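Example 9 (inverse folding). The structure is encoded as follows.
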């Protein structure tokens, strides 16, 4: 059973394929909300707490076949549990807005779909160990080839998933759109192919709408 968090703050997640502009837009949204006087905590997954950042290095660096999908489900969920206990829950309980760059929907997609159908396993472990969904999920939808070009342009060491290539990016894009229909109440789909300012404006409107429906 998925319990919704009882808290004063707002839990917003960003999802989308690699290079879709999530990190850029998380920063923009946090700036916007802080300007309007709100208290904001920006975080990311995998990571967001000391222990989860250590797990991040394990899962994102090294050979693409370093871990099986099943082992990854356990690692990402372990990281998420630590993140939830130490950062997300306390921040929400203090009435803050938490903006998280990726959350459980990424596990549903990357581990649930990329190497066979493991979605049921992801959901079972999520229900057992996490049990929380964001109040609002911003899905930045984006052409997969364009997203991969943008992601590759960044030059980092965290390339395990980017190395799965264009086919995975396309499957993830389609999967995220399906997921947005499954969880239509909390998802808002934003066109990530626009200029940065236009994407930011669409996201601000979606967040303001979420605030107005909560009051
Ligand atoms: P993600 O976090 O989804 O992987 P990033 O925010 O890191 O994506 O963006 C990937 C790259 O694309 C960065 O170099 C960023 O500056 C650039 N970028 C982000 N949004 C846009 C946009 N709307 N148009 C063009 N380039 C963008
Ligand atoms: P991220 O740092 O958000 O990368 P990007 O900015 O390129 O989107 O995430 C790193 C990778 O981790 C990304 O390719 C997706 C993957 N990932 C999973 O496979 N499962 C998960 O549960 C999460 C949170 C991320």
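The amino acid assigned to each position is listed next.
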């Amino acid at each position: 059973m998925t319990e919704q968090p009882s808290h004063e703050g707002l839990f917003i997640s960003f999802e989308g394929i690699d290079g879709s502009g999530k990190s850029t837009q998380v920063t923009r949204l946090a700036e916007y909300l802080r300007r309007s006087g709100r208290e904001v905590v920006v975080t990311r997954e995998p990571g967001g707490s000391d222990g989860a950042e250590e797990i991040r290095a394990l899962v994102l660096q090294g050979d693409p076949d370093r871990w099986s999908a099943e082992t990854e489900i356990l690692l990402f969920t372990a990281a998420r549990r630590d993140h939830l206990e130490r950062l997300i829950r306390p921040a929400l309980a203090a009435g803050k807005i938490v903006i998280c760059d990726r959350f459980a929907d990424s596990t549903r997609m990357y581990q649930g779909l990329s190497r066979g159908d493991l979605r049921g396993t992801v959901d079972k472990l999520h229900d057992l160990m996490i049990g929380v969904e964001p109040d609002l999920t911003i899905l930045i939808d984006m052409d997969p080839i364009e997203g991969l070009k943008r992601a590759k342009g960044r030059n980092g060491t965290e390339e395990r998933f980017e190395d799965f290539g264009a086919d995975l990016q396309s499957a993830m894009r389609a999967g995220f759109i399906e997921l947005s229909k499954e969880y239509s109440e909390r998802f808002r789909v934003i066109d990530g192919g626009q200029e940065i300012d236009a994407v930011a404006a669409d996201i601000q409107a979606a967040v303001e709408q979420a605030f107005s429906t909560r009051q």
